[in-house]
């Protein structure tokens, strides 16, 4: 296991090598300008906004200069697209192409994509997938109940007491039920676990699973409810049969992996179909292969280093001295080099099976597991019970770095069903439960602060209809109390004044605000003069020192400048943002529960994301740079722009104007009229 300092040291060594190979130099060796981009949670809304935002950054060469991409939940969808597409193409210019964007726009309703009969079929398939996952989740309590029943019956049989037992016919059905259950588990194990939860198999056997689960549960229910025939002593053969059944059920419990039985699998497959459809062989690549600076292929390290943020659920009050309580949690990182948290320490991703086999789409889906019995800071005992019983589980069980001594943790999975049911998830288990990173910090900025980034650009695309800035305030509190960092917005850059619309208006003054990062204290190693050994101590500074610049970008809409002119040559979708807001006043903060974006809705958020980036860079005429080569901006130029407002991009030409006169408009739309001819009418 490794400490956080060891992790950071290795990360930055690899990132320095990446800079050298790419011919990039940010700052001086004394003050390296580490640059990170954070994309918040928010489901498909966040993914679409961030897709447009990154497209603008990429247009000006900013995306390739980032050292880190830190994402949570919906922001991770876009992150996966960027990472996998760059791995496949090896070129930043080949992402955000018209073909890619058109395909994603058409399939914005990713859970039930398609049109007409295909949409109906996909809707039915989703219902089947959930039904199957729910039925499969019941296998764990049935295994426990079956074992207790057989053991109890055997004990009574050996004591000579009369026992209620099934008829010979019912016993035959019993074997059939066990055979079906075993076959179902074998199917799951082979296709999901042994094949590394391969995306290509997820959809293919949902119907087979459903049929097997229905038949197996029906047979088992019939045995328990209707198969009881007699009271009397059990024969030796029946005692042996019952003993074999109990052993088989016990063995079956080692294969009832909730990761394979939950809706997580289907959810992951649908996300991959939307965002990774152009990734070719890299569609289901392992997380460890996302970044490799030692590779001879440039595409292996071309994209920024990924930080995929999840939440470690610690509902067990005995889960550690520092964190006790039903709503305790910790930041859990998934990355190509290391995985873990402060409480568990970190393990090399390459070394252990659970992490070595984890794929990029799986990691992103875990980070987006908003529905889960364990909800981090938002955990609730009653919700844990209900979500476990109805298998509303998108989270993931992974090996605990604390107890990870073997290559793979062998566990009896029904135990973890009841741990989820009773809200007893903690650090003392062999397996840890991780879920949506938004359950602890939804902006994805925390890990960038820990890495001392000189420039952090954060896109907040979470639902915030009232502009209460809950996610931002959560970050500010955690940064100060846990890291000794104060994010101090400048006097004229307060988000409440700039971004929050006035009560009488629906538009914001500005889409972003600039803050400075100051360090008040630091948890560091200090040499103890008495023992001559280094110890962790908190060092307080007399005066806070500035360590970086923080750019907070908020999904918001500015008042339109003038009357938009719609020509016949213009694509109607380009004007979707303002049109969409007229009919949907909650835009751009429609409910996160809406994961079904039609083309207009998708395009409106995508366009908004592009102009969020344009406003941040001071670009007034973004379409101009679709036709011309845009200037490539350095990190130093960005810092100068935000710190001193040094001109970043030359002033753009005045926007195109509509025809001034009504006659000109009329001339542009009038059509040739047919000649009038005399028509005679008869009564």
Q: Major sheet, described briefly?
A: 12 strands, mixed
CA-based gyration radius: 29 Å
Would you tell me the overall average pLDDT?
82
Which structural class do you get from the secondary structure elements?
Answer: alpha+beta
Please bin the fraction of helical residues.
40-55%
How much of the residues is beta strand, in percent?
15-25%
Shape: globular
Oligomer: single chain
Count helical runs.
23
Cα distance spanning the termini:
98 Å
Q: How many β strands by DSSP? A: 16
Question: Can you offer a commentary on this structure?
Answer:
Among the domains are: 318 residues, no CATH class; 115 residues, no CATH class. Helices cover 42% and strands 16% of the residues. Strands 3, 4, 7, 8, 9, 10, 11, 12, 13, 14, 15 and 16 form a twelve-stranded mixed β-sheet that branches. Strands 1-2 form a two-stranded antiparallel sheet.
In short:
The protein is of the alpha+beta class. It is built from 23 helices and 16 strands. Among the domains are: 318 residues, no CATH class; 115 residues, no CATH class.
Provide tags for this entry.
683 residues, alpha+beta, twelve-stranded mixed sheet, two-stranded antiparallel ribbon, 42% helix, globular, disordered C terminus
Write the layout of secondary structure elements.
Elements: H1 4-22, E1 27-28, E2 31-32, E3 35-39, H2 43-59, E4 68-71, H3 74-89, H4 98-106, H5 117-137, H6 139-158, E5 163-166, H7 168-194, H8 206-226, E6 228-232, H9 236-252, H10 258-261, H11 264-275, E7 305-314, E8 328-334, E9 338-341, E10 345-348, H12 353-356, H13 360-367, H14 381-389, E11 396-399, H15 414-422, E12 431-436, H16 446-450, E13 455-460, H17 470-483, E14 485-489, H18 495-498, E15 512-528, E16 533-554, H19 576-583, H20 599-617, H21 624-627, H22 635-644, H23 662-669
Parallel strand pairs: 3-4, 3-13, 4-7, 13-16
Antiparallel strand pairs: 1-2, 5-6, 7-8, 7-12, 8-9, 9-10, 11-12, 14-15, 15-16
Helix pairs in contact: 2-3, 2-20, 3-13, 5-8, 6-9, 6-15, 7-8, 7-9, 11-13, 14-15, 19-20
């Amino acid at each position: 296991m490794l400490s956080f300092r060891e992790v950071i040291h290795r990360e930055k060594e690899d990132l320095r090598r990446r800079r050298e190979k790419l011919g990039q130099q940010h700052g001086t060796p004394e003050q390296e300008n580490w640059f990170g981009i954070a994309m918040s949670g928010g489901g498909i809304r966040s993914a679409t906004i961030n897709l447009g935002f990154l497209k603008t950054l990429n247009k000006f060469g900013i995306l390739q200069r980032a050292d880190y991409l830190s994402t949570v939940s919906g922001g991770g969808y876009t992150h996966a697209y960027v990472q996998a597409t760059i791995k496949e193409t090896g070129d930043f210019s080949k992402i955000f192409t018209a073909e890619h964007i058109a395909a994603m726009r058409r399939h914005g309703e990713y859970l039930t994509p398609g049109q007409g009969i295909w949409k109906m079929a996909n809707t039915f398939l989703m219902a089947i997938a959930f039904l199957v996952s729910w039925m499969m989740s019941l296998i764990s309590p049935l295994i426990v109940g079956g074992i207790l029943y057989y053991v109890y019956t055997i004990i009574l049989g050996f004591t000579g007491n009369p026992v209620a037992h099934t008829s010979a016919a019912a016993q035959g059905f019993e074997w059939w039920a066990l055979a079906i259950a075993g076959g179902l588990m074998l199917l799951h194990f082979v296709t999901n676990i042994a094949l590394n939860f391969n995306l290509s198999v997820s959809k293919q056997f949902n119907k087979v699973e459903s049929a097997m689960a229905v038949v197996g549960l029906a047979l088992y229910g019939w045995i328990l409810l209707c198969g009881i025939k007699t009271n009397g002593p059990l024969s030796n053969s029946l005692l042996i049969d019952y003993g074999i059944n109990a052993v088989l059920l016990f063995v079956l419990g080692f294969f009832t992996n909730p990761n394979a039985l939950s809706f997580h699998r289907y959810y992951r497959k649908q996300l991959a179909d939307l965002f990774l459809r152009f990734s070719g062989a890299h569609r289901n690549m392992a997380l460890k292969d996302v970044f490799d600076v030692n590779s001879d292929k440039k595409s292996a390290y071309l994209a920024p280093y990924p930080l995929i943020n999840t939440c470690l659920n610690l509902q067990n009050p005995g889960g550690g001295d520092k964190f006790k309580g039903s709503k305790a949690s910790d930041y859990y990182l998934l990355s190509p080099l290391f995985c873990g948290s402060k409480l568990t320490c970190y393990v090399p991703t390459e070394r252990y099976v659970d992490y070595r086999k984890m794929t990029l789409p799986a990691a992103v889906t875990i980070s987006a597991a908003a529905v889960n019995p364990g909800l981090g800071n938002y955990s609730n005992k009653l919700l844990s019970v209900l979500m476990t019983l109805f298998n509303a589980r998108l989270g993931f069980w992974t090996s605990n770095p604390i107890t990870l001594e073997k290559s793979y943790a062998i566990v009896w999975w029904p135990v973890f069903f009841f741990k989820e049911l009773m809200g007893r998830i903690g650090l003392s288990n062999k397996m840890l439960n991780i879920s949506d990173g938004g359950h602890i910090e939804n902006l994805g900025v925390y890990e960038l602060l820990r890495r001392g980034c000189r420039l952090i650009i954060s896109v907040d695309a979470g639902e915030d209809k009232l502009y209460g800035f809950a996610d931002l305030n959560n970050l500010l509190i955690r940064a100060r109390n846990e890291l000794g960092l104060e994010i101090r917005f400048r006097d004229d850059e307060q988000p409440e004044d700039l971004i929050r619309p006035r009560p009488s208006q629906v538009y914001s003054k500005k889409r972003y605000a600039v803050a400075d990062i100051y360090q008040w204290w630091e948890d560091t190693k200090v040499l103890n003069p008495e023992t001559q050994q280094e110890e962790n101590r908190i060092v307080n500074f007399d005066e806070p020192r500035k360590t970086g610049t923080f750019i907070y970008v908020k999904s918001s809409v500015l008042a339109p400048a003038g009357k938009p002119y719609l020509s016949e040559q213009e694509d109607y979708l380009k004007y979707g943002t303002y049109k969409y807001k007229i009919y949907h006043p909650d835009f751009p903060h429609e409910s996160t529960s809406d994961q079904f974006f039609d083309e207009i809705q998708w395009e409106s958020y995508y366009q908004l994301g592009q102009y969020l980036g344009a406003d941040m860079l001071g670009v007034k005429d973004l379409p101009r740079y679709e036709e011309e080569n845009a200037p490539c901006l350095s990190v130093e130029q960005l810092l100068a722009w935000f710190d001193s407002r040094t001109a970043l991009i030359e002033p753009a030409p005045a926007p195109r104007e509509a025809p001034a006169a009504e006659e000109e408009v009329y001339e542009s739309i009038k059509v040739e009229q047919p000649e009038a001819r005399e028509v005679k009418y008869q009564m």
